[in-house]
Each structure stands twice: as C-alpha cells, then as structure tokens.
What we know:
This protein is mostly helical. 47% of the residues lie in helices and 8% in strands. It is elongated, with a radius of gyration of 27 Å.
Amino acid sequence: MPVTCPRCGWQGEQAQYCARCGATLEAPAASPGSVFSRPPPPSAPYAAPPIVTSYVPRVEAPARPAGFWIRFVAYTIDGFCLILVQVVLWSVGWTVGGGGGSWRAVGAATHLFNWIIGALYFIVFHYRGGQTFGKMLMQVRVVRMEGGPLTLGQSIGRYFATYLSAIILSIGFIMAGLRSDKRALHDLLAGTRVERL
Length: 197
C-alpha cells in the first residue's frame, strides 16, 4: 500500500519511515467501520522516533526481453514441429484414402487439421506455461506485462493477432526488432511480452 510522507512528499510502499527525511509515515486510514481499520497506536510522549541508519530500496531484476532473432529461431523450430505433424497427417490420409483420385480431399482435410492443430499448439502451450517447444529450446517465454502467466483469452487473442502481424507485410513481427521493449504487434494487442529466462 503506497504511503506519502507528510513532511517532504516522498512516496513509497509499505515503509514505516521516510527514506528522504526520516519522518514517521502513516498508511491512509481505512474507512470508518471497516473490518481492516485499527485503532491508532498509543502515543508515548517521551519516546524519540527511531533513527533511520540505512535505506535499502527494493530492486526487482529487470526483465530481459527476447529480441527478434531469438523469437524467429523459436518460431522456425515450432514451424518444423508443425510441418512434421502435417507430413504424418498427409501420409495417414493418403494411406486411408487409397491414394486414388481423392488427393484433393486428403489435402483439404490435412490443411484443416493442420490449422486446428497449429492453433491449439500455440494457444494451449502459451496458456499452460508460456512456452512452445521452440521457446523452450531457446529459453524464452510469453508472459503478461506484470510477469504472470497468460489468461486463456490473452492466449487466444495473441494467436489471432499474429495473423494481423503477418497480413501487414510482417511488419508486426519486425516491430519486435525495432522497439526498445522488443514487443511485436500481437504482443501489444494482447498485453503480453516475451522474455528470456
């Protein structure tokens, strides 16, 4: 809960004393009758405020964004995995179909199943752990902007937003190499980012 120093205006989180001037900080009072309200602490008229000897700010490790090329390699690995699935589906369809004049039906069914499997591959893997096989090998993952796992809606939205990134001459993908935060268009639309592990 953020607190503000009444003396100098410094703002911090869950601090008891101001890091700038040493004044005692008080959290904002809860509304009257609230379950979380506490009675004020008893005041000691002769007690001096404790002396602040050091202040160590909370430092979070900065996220290391994954750039264009590492994402490109991960996507290429995923593409090879999906091509392998398509070859298996094609050969099974060709064997079951008899190899006769039904090659168009086999091709159409293979492409349909390949699209469904590809969609489920990216949506489920990003939702469950933020990583596809390619991202696992390249040690990157997709997370929300706060760093948490993706929701199912974000995973679905990110998948379909990749089509938008591709339709505009792949400029949506190239954005990951040009932006300082390394976010592509589909990341911006879904509220996600790709980070190195």
